[in-house]
Amino acid sequence: MIFTFQMPTAENIILFKIVYQGQVTEIRTYPNQYYSLMTLISDQLAIPGFGLCSGMGSCGSCLVQISNGYHQGTKNVLACAVSVNDELAGAVVTVPKQF
Ligand code: FES
After folding, report:
1. pLDDT tens-digit profile of 15-73?
2. Among candidates 39, 25, 33, 46, which has minimal Cα distance to 94?
3. Cα of 41 from ligand 1 centre, angstroms
4. How far apart are CA 73 and CA 78, in angstroms?
5. N or C: which end of the chain has fewer CB within 10 A?
6. Does the Cβ of 52 fall within 6 Å of ligand 1?
7. SS3 for 63?
8. 85-88, long-range: CB within 8 Å, 24+ apart, which pairs?
9. d(C-alpha 58, C-alpha 72), whole Å
10. CB distance 29 to 54 below 8 Å
């Protein structure tokens, strides 16, 4: 993954929602502010047990459901494998209740 830093501007702000335990958190970020969706969720929601392997892709604890946005329909994905970019704009990310 190539990490490029972009300064936040009105044009590149990314808005989407995270749903966890029935609570909706509105996220306002910009491309690559976070290394991955997992790091964003860990920072914004601080869910114990989420992202146990720190993004190595080996624990499965960061499994989330993404719907709408760029991903038409609904997909289950590892949040550590999802870049924070405009593909998340308008998406609803649901963290399962196992935590
Ligand atoms: S943080 Fe372990 S698989 Fe994503």
Report:
1. 999 999 999 999 999 998 999 999 999 999 999 999 999 999 999 999 999 998 665 78
2. 25
3. 12
4. 16
5. N
6. yes
7. strand
8. 85/14, 85/31, 85/32, 86/12, 86/14, 86/31, 88/14, 88/16, 88/37
9. 26
10. no
In angstroms, the CA 64 to CA 38 distance is 9
Question: Of ligand 1's atoms, which has the minimum distance to the CA of residue 80?
Answer: 4
Q: Which fold does the domain 19-95 belong to in CATH?
A: Ubiquitin-like (UB roll) (3.10.20)
Tokens read off for 50: 């989420």
For residue 52, the CA-to-ligand 1 centroid distance in Å is 6
Please say whether the beta carbons of 95 and 13 come within 8 A.
no
Nearest to 75 by CA among 86, 66, 84, 88: 66
pTM beyond 0.90: the answer is no
Question: How many residues appear in the chain?
Answer: 99
64 lines ligand 1 (CB under 6 A): no
